[in-house]
Amino acid sequence: MKSIRKTALALAAAISISTSAFAQVYVDVPESHWAYSAIQQVTDKKWMGGNTQQQFKPNNTIDYFYFSQIAAKIAGYKDPLIDSNVSAAEKQLTQTASQTYKNILDSYTKNFSKWDKNSNEEIAYLLYKGVLKEADLPKFVVKQAGGEESILSLRREDMAVFVVRLMGKETEALKKTASTGFMDDASIPASVKPYVSYLKDAGVIQGGANVNFNPKDKVTKAMLAKVLADALKPAGNSSTTPSTGQQAPSTQEKEVYLQGTVKKFYTNLYYILLQYGENKQSYYYIKKDAPILIGNKETNIETIKEGDTLLVELVEEEGQQRISKITILESSKTDHTNNPQDTTTVPGSTTTPSTSNPTHEEANLPSSTKRIDGIVDFVSESGRIDITVKYVDYKGDIKEAVESYSISQNAVITKDNKEISASNVKRGDIIIAEVKGSTLYKAAIMEKQRKVEGSLAEKKRVNGGNILVLENSKGEKTEYQIASDVMISKKSISDAVWNDLRIGDKISLDLEYDKVVGLYAEGFHSEVKGVVQEILISTAQSKVTLELSNGTTKTYPLIFGAIIKKDRGKESATIYDVRLGQEVELALDSLEIEEMIIRDQTKVSAVQGYIENINFLDDYLDIRTNSDISGTKRIRLEKEVEVFQGTRRLSRRDLEKGMLVSIILKSYGSDQADTINILAEK
């Protein structure tokens, strides 16, 4: 039995509660949606549901694992960790199924890293019930020639087979003719045709000489909801029951009369929303044999319009109240035409409601955009794009799902900072998109395999893994994880390893999606001189900050094991022998110190510039230097300061505003003058 954290259980319960109410409102499924009623039905039955943001995501394609979770619930599977109403017999059946198919499912779990082992119990249950066959399992995950694995989306042809088995009608379906009557009948596998024919004859899917079935098309959540709602326990027809095919018992209890106004009406679904009492509303199914009257005269269901006042007679069947008789008391003045989308059964290339009307499209959009990061799975000529994204499910597991969007005619799609058309987007491309509702308006495309370049800004280890920080020409820094099996190459070094990389190296990374698969580095050697301004001693990597001859400062990391010497190599030293103010010479490997030579004497700083101001009372002068960002530098003048002009000794009182002077400070970093040389009069 699967182990689920208590927090996940609580979240699952919350989702179940939020989506179990029959009038559940999904922000992305308006009442005008062609599958609105079906989505409400499967939500009410707890077969399918939305997320905590009240999104159903009707255009998302589903994979075989997700379908298995839905189908198992329909077939009778109950998880004791989620459903408390599990009998001993039900537990035993689940255990028997799991044990029967344990070896084969364990082999799939072992052979495929992307195999969803948390679905094994549901899959075993469906195998035991006959809804799935062992021959169906290879369709869940496939491995490409290069070893890359893909979780496949459920196809319409397989959906037809599985749904008929859920209905318990496989034996009956296999007696059907080999022709389906669809225009693309030749493209439907012969083994699938009987199932398609059965669903077509049952009214679950529509077809004809001018309609395609599109067997290879991916199944969306809305499409599956519509098929399940129509195939399993349809309104007014209890001839089929999930997984057994047996007729369900019908129990008629007390009759109830209700008078109300029609708010919504879906003719072909025999489904109606009535408003009654003090602004109360409820949905009801209409029994297909229910008589519909105006006065004493019988009429048909098409007579009913939104706004009509009805008197309905209710009966309870299978735990639900259904309408067994309708009397139209008052007809609405306005003829409300039923939305033609309501008569759509399963959307195909010829049946999906059009969303090309910009006004209609914008009217149903959320107020804010959403960012989608993922991999392009499919782009159609008609402007539909499928994007594989990762998400965390209610169990806390990372899953992949395919989300479908319509590409707006005004969409801006760029690649390498150049605008491209949707036809140039390829399967496997990385996409960062902005969407509103089910429409894509903006996207940036990157190829699956690409190269990034920059300079190595930082190396670090996080949780035992190597992280490289790359800085591009714009100064932007990006982290990349370098796996232990990544091949590292560096110019002039054979068999390079992680420790051979240096800060400042020119780096080129080969990426496949966001994974680094190759790393090439090129270093350079140089020498610098400067005065030590700061020393950082660390077990990770020590650093030394220098003031260079041009007045700028720069920090250099110290390579572990770097050579440090005093007085040009006469005496070895360590980082602990380095002092602030000392002049040093560095031999660099890129920007890391591989050798440091420390001068014997601490360098006293000198500043040169024009005297801007002198204050003998407070003992200071302000000097304007070319290197000082602020423009002036304040120097303290003690009474004992020595002043020279050439070889002639002067006093500080001889200093005047406007003189060009060179000032030797008493110590590095000090602001106190030791000696002042007058270079030029004002």
From TrEMBL:
Biased composition (Polar residues): 236-251
SLH domain boundaries: 22-85, 179-242
UniProt key word Repeat: yes
Annotated signal sequence range: 1-23
Region (Disordered): 234-253, 329-367
Stored Pfam families: SLH
Stretches with biased composition (Low complexity): 343-358
Protein name: S-layer homology domain-containing protein
